[in-house]
Write a structure and sequence with these properties.
Blueprint: E1 3-6, E2 14-16, H1 19-31, H2 43-48, E3 50-57, E4 61-67, E5 73-76, H3 88-103, E6 108-116, E7 120-129, E8 166-176, E9 182-183, E10 195-202, E11 205-213, H4 221-238, E12 245-247, E13 260-265, H5 271-288, E14 306-308, E15 314-316, H6 326-341, H7 354-362, H8 365-368, H9 372-380, H10 385-401
Antiparallel strand pairs: 1-5, 2-7, 3-4, 3-6, 4-5, 6-7, 8-9, 8-11, 8-12, 8-13, 10-11, 13-15, 14-15
Helix pairs in contact: 4-6, 5-6, 6-10, 9-10
């Protein structure tokens, strides 16, 4: 990590939001679970707080400036080899800044953040390029800015990058007794491996209550699903207490929200791709989810949740655990593949509008249902749609009828996993 002291430079590149745009941005950030008080707070409070300016470009924090007493600044840069900040505070600041800008529809800008005790923070200001501020929260999709190292798509929306597209996953589930008590996954499996237990920090203690499947990545989502089924059978061998129910979805057990993370490599991470995944994968799953699953948001399941990975790709973390049913798993993986493969042909951005953004976080399915026709129309125009048509059209029928998954069910029978000794 490079650190140096410099005199403050006047940043003229970015502008703050004002008027109705500021009020809308504040409401949107709060709804998304981001602590903020845009342009608020007393001068006295700011004088003694640790304040940082995080400069973001293409979904990464290029530098972090800390305001110092006396008018100077400390500047922190990511490690030139790993691209990561070594200090935990700086990683949290980067994550908060990226999340704030993404929530307002941009991947570039400056976010002013005050760090608070107990790993807390508050976003004080969000500044963005003047020429892009008018596009904030536009319902229209924006074409991806070209990512270094990746070729641009040609007119058919094709490119050589898709030939190297790989997908992986790590969906989660919990083990529960008949009386509703949970049994930690760590009683049956190690932390690593194709089937392992995942860490959770609860009241200051690190525990391993959640089971996680990590099948080998594949280029084809149907092949990836077969790998996931192999992992389920391996889990069956490890979890020898057949009396325990396996439960998935969003929130089958209140203390431990579950995720269905999908990994991508061979495709550039961009604002456009994240928005495509949100609008074409997360939105329909919000319609299919158990009504109780809404309580997972906004702390988990927030839009645009991603994490870069050491293998050079990224992990899309917004979805709940799609292990909850074979149909939900097939639709999640199939549409995620289409979104990565054809993101430039999927322009719908209903979640950029206040109406549908609010409905997503409030779990208002009657409003989200208005998006089904456009969602299906866009997907059905894609060249590889026929390969996934059966599952997508079954999902459309479920969404139109208001059918949702039941995450109180034991998922083993759904995946042909024996429940008897």
């Amino acid at each position: 990590m490079a650190r140096m002291i410099v005199r403050p430079a006047v940043e003229k590149k970015y502008v703050s939001l004002h008027g109705s745009a500021l009020l809308m941005a504040q409401a949107r950030l709060i709804r998304s679970g981001i602590p903020c008080g845009l342009n608020s707070g007393s001068v006295e409070e700011k004088r003694y707080a640790a304040r940082y300016a995080v400069h973001v470009d293409r979904l990464a924090a290029a530098k972090i400036r800390q305001h110092q007493m006396g008018g100077s600044e400390a500047v922190f840069m990511p490690d030139p080899e790993s691209g990561r900040y070594e200090d935990g505070l700086h990683r949290r600041l980067e994550k908060a800044a990226l999340r704030s800008l993404y929530t307002l529809g941009v991947d570039e800008g400056e976010v002013i953040i005050t760090a608070l005790p107990g790993r807390r923070y508050v976003v004080e200001d969000v500044r963005m390029p003047a020429d892009r501020s008018k596009a904030v929260m536009s319902a229209k999709g924006q074409r991806s800015r070209r990512t270094e190292g990746y070729p641009a798509n040609n007119e058919e929306g094709d490119s050589s990058l898709v030939s190297s597209l790989l997908m992986g996953m790590d969906p989660e589930f919990v083990l529960m007794k008949d009386n509703g008590d949970i049994v930690f996954a760590s009683e049956f499996m190690e932390r690593g491996g194709t089937v392992g237990s995942d860490a959770v920090r609860l009241r200051g203690e690190v525990i391993y209550p959640i089971a996680e499947l990590r099948p080998s990545p594949k280029a084809n989502p149907k092949e990836l699903l077969l790998e996931m089924q192999k992992a389920l059978r391996e889990a069956h061998l490890l979890i020898q207490d057949r009396s325990l129910a396996w439960k998935a979805g969003a929130l089958p057990y209140g203390d431990f929200p579950l995720g269905g993370h999908i990994h991508f490599s061979g495709v550039p991470l961009s604002l456009s791709l994240l928005q495509t995944l949100d609008n074409y994968v997360a939105l329909p799953l919000a319609l299919l989810e158990d009504p109780n699953g809404r309580l997972r948001r906004p702390r988990y399941g927030f839009l645009g949740d991603f994490r870069r990975q050491p293998y050079g790709g990224f992990e899309y973390r917004t979805l709940p655990s799609f292990l909850v049913s074979p149909l939900v798993a097939k639709v999640s993986l199939g549409v995620a593949y289409l979104a990565a493969r054809y993101s430039d042909r999927l322009p719908g951005r209903p979640l950029n509008t206040e109406r549908y953004h609010r409905a997503y976080y409030e779990g208002d399915k009657s409003v989200l249902k208005e998006c089904i026709a456009g969602w299906h129309r866009d997907l059905s125009a894609l060249p590889e749609y026929p390969d996934f048509a059966r599952e997508i059209e079954r999902a459309v029928a479920h969404m139109e009828r208001g059918r949702t998954w039941d995450e109180s069910r034991d998922i083993r029978p759904l995946w042909n996993i024996p429940t008897k000794p």
